[in-house]
Amino acid sequence: MVKKEEKFNDIVTDNSERIKRICSYYSPNSEDRKDMYQEILVNIWKSLDSFRGDAAMSTWIYRIAVNTSLGFTGKAFKQMQMMVNTDTENIGVLFDDGLEEKLKQESQLNQLQMELNQMSVIDKSLMSLLLEGLSMREIADVIGITEPNVKVKIHRIKEQLKSKLSGGKHE
């Protein structure tokens, strides 16, 4: 049987960058991100013995990271500023009509961030997980809503973003 410490070290090695990206979605402050990262690791350690394997390990990690981040930011989460960079490899999932290329222009990226930051808590969480490249099923497992509900919510968010970023001209 693999020791808890070895299993934990493997999890950290395999998921460190993923956890850091989640932290960056939830806090623009580097010191807060470091504290959040540490708190996520503590929560993974505490929960490791209770992991039953009902979900994929990566889904379990995301759930801990998102829930810890939400708890860490507390009431300030509604004012949380999502930071989206042009090097976010999955930014293309938001738009399927070539708008991704336009977003590389700084003003459009700033507008996207502004729109994302005006979203509700659940919408911000959905979009951060979508930008992480999770499937609809994985997002549903992490957030705790049905997969069809995730699909509908994400579709609506994308449509709203397209409309707002194209000056309301999107149908």
Give the helix/strand layout.
Layout: H1 4-26, H2 30-47, H3 57-73, H4 99-103, H5 106-117, H6 121-131, H7 136-143, H8 147-165
Helix pairs in contact: 1-2, 1-3, 2-3, 3-7, 7-8
Family: Belongs to the sigma-70 factor family. ECF subfamily.
Domain RNA polymerase sigma-70 region: 12-69
Domain RNA polymerase sigma factor 70 region 4 type: 110-161
Tally of separate helices: 8
Helix content: 55-70%
Distance between the termini: 57 Å
Write the H/E string, N to C: HHHHHHHH
Structural class category: mainly alpha
The coarse silhouette is globular
- Main pleated-sheet profile: none
Based on DSSP secondary structure assignment, what is the total number of beta strands?
0
Mean pLDDT: 81
The proportion of residues in beta strands is under 5%
How would you name the oligomeric state of the polypeptide chains in this document? Answer: single chain
Radius of gyration: 17 Å
- Quickly count the domains: 2
Poorly predicted parts: none
Keywords: Sigma factor, Transcription, Transcription regulation
Pfam family, one: Sigma70_r4_2
Family: Belongs to the sigma-70 factor family. ECF subfamily.
Protein name: RNA polymerase sigma factor
